TrEMBL record:
Residues 1-22 form the signal peptide. It comes from Brevundimonas variabilis. It comes from the Bacteria. Keywords: Signal. This is Putative benzoate:H+ symporter BenE.
């Protein structure tokens, strides 16, 4: 390996080790709980912050029906983590029994609860 290749590898390793490129999955269990309990007709107050919980409760009939139609979660594949103004957000590719895979984001952790969860985007 030449000097330039070695320096490039060191630079890439340093970037990936920085907080902006943190790539460990930490929120999968909470995301699975949010999706499955919402599909079953309940907003899980133990993992949702106040604003997210209020939004979930307001939209529960539509969200519950939509999520239930996808079937059970078969897998949740970690895609990446991002540092955003509202805090760390993790993106997962969630595959459902229906065969559909949707990208989901979860983050904004504060006092042990999440303030952000969404489907779509990338």
């Amino acid at each position: 390996m030449g000097f330039r290749s070695t320096m490039t590898a060191v630079a890439i390793a340093g970037l990936m080790a920085s907080p902006a490129f943190a790539q460990s999955a930490e929120y999968e269990a909470a995301l699975r709980k949010m999706i499955s309990q919402t599909a079953a007709g309940t907003c899980p107050a133990d993992v949702m912050g106040p604003d997210l919980l209020a939004a979930c409760q307001q939209q529960l009939p539509q969200m519950s029906a939509g999520l239930a139609s996808l079937g059970a979660i078969e897998s949740a594949q970690f895609v990446r983590a991002e540092d955003r103004p509202e805090g760390r957000v993790e993106i997962y590719a969630v595959k459902f029994a229906s065969g559909m895979t949707l990208n989901w984001g979860i983050g904004g952790l504060s006092d042990g609860k999440f303030n952000l969860a969404f489907a779509g985007g990338d």
